[in-house]
Write a structure and sequence with these properties.
Elements (H helix, E strand, L loop, with lengths): L1 E3 L2 E3 L1 H6 L5 E2 L4 E2 L9 E6 L5 E7 L2 E8 L2 E8 L6 H7 L2 H24 L3
């Protein structure tokens, strides 16, 4: 069984994208899982950064990860022709700027830890 914040649902119900009414002592919930289900559109190869393109809630999310740091850019699905257009944005200049932002994030965290260490 999969668990949700609303209660327990079966795998079959989750796979179908719908869950039945769930009863508990407080109230009864009805919800549809497919509306807000995040899906991976593409894993984009890069030698240093993990790049994932996601779709969720009417938006594309460009998620970049490097070590313990993460950057996410949200773009409305209405503002682009599709995921292929977004992939073209991930050029050398954009990714270099993202790398610089990762370095700034690391520096900011290091300085904050140093200011508050005993």
């Amino acid at each position: 069984m999969k668990s949700s914040v609303f209660g327990l649902i079966s795998r079959k119900e989750a796979k179908n994208g719908r869950a039945p009414l769930i009863h508990d002592n407080l109230s009864t919930f009805a919800f549809q899982l497919t509306k807000n289900t995040m899906r991976v559109v593409a894993d984009i190869p890069h030698p240093e950064i993990k790049i994932t393109l996601l779709a969720w809630n009417g938006k594309y999310l460009i998620k970049l990860e490097l070590g313990p740091f993460e950057q996410t850019y949200k773009v409305s699905e209405m503002d682009v022709a599709g995921d292929e257009e977004i992939k073209t944005w991930l050029d050398e200049e954009f990714l270099q700027q993202c790398m610089e932002q990762f370095l700034t994030m690391r520096k900011n965290l290091h300085e904050a830890r140093r200011r508050h260490s005993f």
